[in-house]
């Protein structure tokens, strides 16, 4: 059975495979693949005072079978825009990559200076699949800026995480893609937050940056739950704490409504490293808009102890 041409081939060749169109994509049955792929780490000397820029964005960077209203130009533009972010940022968190498990290595072709890890939300072990790919998260990091990186295995396919060591300081970075905000999904939302907390505790690192699409608009169910969770653990949602109330990170293609769904959450120990947070409104090339977090890691204490709230 022939497969429709992958986005990697589109980027390389600039045209679709000529074949009969179908309403959905189909993959042939294949052996089970692991859902995680870690790229090379690289080796380099890094200055501890180097500024850190982490851009978190949600954009389909890889599409196995494209919807009828998406063109080759749209795909190339998405990849090119991520490459342009690689020129400015040292770490990029991606959500909703639409990657299949065996295609995660495509992340390594975006920029040769970046290593990567990614998780697919698509389970190919079930055999034949129909419909477009969905979900998926990834992290890209500059190899010269972060030479010592360990990929952290997460149970949820909504999470990707790495532990980064710089001299005598270390921190953890998450890329997260939460389910749609509704009461039926609240349990899954809180389970993801609980897994993040468990990963933090098991890795004995207090400085943590959690970047991604939380599907949490201020004043609504998921945002209220997120802020409550943060308060209990002395975390901070730095964008909601500092940006104006009319901030938005998502524009609906259907009816043009503006939503603030993408956030930067940090632990109490990581907060001193945050210099600024901003939304890159001039980089509008997806329905979600990139968020830029600038950090300076020498502001993180060499040895920190996680403070827990007083018992009630």
UniProtKB/TrEMBL annotation:
TM stretches of this protein: none
Tree of life domain: Eukaryota
Record Pfam families: Exo_endo_phos
InterPro entries, sorted: Endo/exonu/phosph_ase_sf (IPR036691), Endo/exonuclease/phosphatase (IPR005135)
All residue ranges annotated as the Endonuclease/exonuclease/phosphatase domain in the record: 64-288
GO MF term (any one): catalytic activity
Protein name (record): SFRICE_040559
Organism: Spodoptera frugiperda
Classification lineage: Eukaryota, Metazoa, Ecdysozoa, Arthropoda, Hexapoda
